[in-house]
Amino acid sequence: MTFSTWLTFFVASWAISFSPGAGAISAMSSGLKYGFARGYWNTVGLILGILAQFVIVAVGLGAVLATSEIAFAVVKYLGVAYLVYLGWRQIRTDAAPVAVDTGDPAQFSVRELVVRGLLVNLMNPKGTVFLLAVVPQFVNPAHALTPQYAALAGTLAFTDLVAMGVYTLLAAKVLRLLRDARHIRWMNRIFGSLFILAGAFLATFRRQA
């Protein structure tokens, strides 16, 4: 892979990372509830999900997912169900005021946030099919594939770390304005509805023939 090829992918990665989607919704939801420092753990899970998708594409399983109706449908509807579940749970979240830097440690779980981010990206065949369509364009088959896939995966992971950090921080800043339980309740309903809407869009996604 030449430097110019990598640079092109680097530029494209910023657009990919900042594009609205389930990952951005998840990041903002976490920032809203836990603040930036804690909510950013969700981004760790999102990145792990992206890296897992790169592995799926690199070992050829992405092609199976893209061409098999059954495999694609299973993963897709698992993703739809999970996003709807997150939306419903967000809507029903307690409307008590939340503090940015404090809160009950017993109600905060790093593991839960990381797993949620991982599943949001991993159970999204749209992302895998997208990577399967885009990544090969930047890979030179005449050279070792592993270093090239590693470079592309690391690049997208970096831009996503920044982009999801921005989304998390923006939502966390809103926390300072949310002291009324009614405002928090409506914000939870908005994010919950966005999760469900993302699930609905995923349900309408069709693999390319």
Explain how this protein is built.
This protein has 209 residues and is an all-alpha fold. It has helices spanning 3-18, 22-34, 36-39, 41-58, 61-67, 69-91, 110-122, 125-134, 145-175, 181-204. The chain has one domain (3-12, 22-97, 104-204). It contains ten helices and no strands. The longest helix is centred in the C-terminal third of the chain and has 31 residues, at 145-175. The radius of gyration is 18 Å and the shape is globular. Belongs to the Rht family. It is a multi-pass membrane protein. GO terms for molecular function: homoserine transmembrane transporter activity. It is found in: Cell membrane.
Biggest β-sheet description: none
Level of helix content? over 70%
Distance between the ends:
29 Å
List low-pLDDT spans: 96-103
Number of domains: 1
